[in-house]
Design a protein that fits this description.
Number of strands: 0
Low-confidence stretches: 165-172
Largest sheet: none
Number of domains: 1
Helix content: 55-70%
Number of helices: 7
CATH topology: Tetracycline Repressor, domain 2
Radius of gyration: 17 Å
Length: 172
Amino acid sequence: MATIAQWVEGARPRTLPTALSPVIAGTGAAIGHGVVSPGRALLALVVAVSLMIGVNYANDYSDGIRGTDDERVGPVRLVGSRLAAPTTVRTAAFFAFGVAGVAGLTLVSLSGQWWMIAVGVLCIVAAWFYTGGSHPYGYLASARSRSSCSTASWAFSAPCSRRAARPGPSPW
């Protein structure tokens, strides 16, 4: 059974700046326009970090059941090193996606930007099929940019949107 420290390492905290950067940029843009809501920026941060953790656990699960992590160097692989059962790691991934979904739906309900639901769904689908499913795109040459783009589009758009920052018509 994996320890808490191993679960934290399995979430791959070194990847979290990838989730933080677009939220910081989007919040900065909102500040630059004079319309920022710290609560909504925090929700966008929860979405971005939860998506990143979810994709990391989903990758651990998918690579682990395929056997591609059996001889791996780098951060701990929970399934590949048999520290956690595959179903437990899969559940952790889905839990992280669920946290992202709840935070994202809350942000959408506050902002009225209903189109962001489609972006959020695309992010979760992209995160799962990065190395999951029968034809994972994570093994393609351009995969890293696609996965990061999906996360970044959600994380950047939510706090950057004037409509997400305050009610009323958007000039964009």
